[in-house]
Amino acid sequence: MKTADDAPIEGLALRLLRLEQRFQSYCALHDEELREIREALRHLREDLLAQASLNAGRPLLHSDEDEEGAGHEEEDVPISAL
């Protein structure tokens, strides 16, 4: 049998349940985004290593003297700018 005093308790319990569900939802979303970021970082590292191996024998950064005689290409971007 419910009493008038039970109403505030039920309201608080329902609010707690909703907040717990919302928190769980945010945690799941956060975990998913972290996985996506980790995957993107892994791909970028692989791409960087592949590009570095293609450029073996050539410096990754060119001096100003090198740029005067050659066109400026995208791959001439300093690694720190990536």
What do you see in this structure?
This protein has a domain at 26-51. It has 2 helices and no strands. It has helices spanning 6-54, 64-69.
Spell out the blueprint of helices and strands:
Layout: H1 6-54, H2 64-69
Q: How many whole angstroms does the radius of gyration measure? A: 28 Å
Characterize the largest beta sheet: strand count, sense, and whether it forms a barrel.
Answer: none
* H/E element order: HH
The averaged pLDDT comes out at: 80
Number of helices: 2
Low-confidence stretches: none
Portion in strands: under 5%
Taken from the alpha-carbon principal axes, the silhouette is rod-shaped
* Oligomeric composition of the shown chains: single chain
Fraction in helix: 55-70%
Structural class: mainly alpha
State the distance separating the first and last CA atoms: 66 Å
Number of strands: 0
Brief synopsis:
With 82 residues, the protein is mainly alpha-helical. Helices cover 67% and strands 0% of the residues.
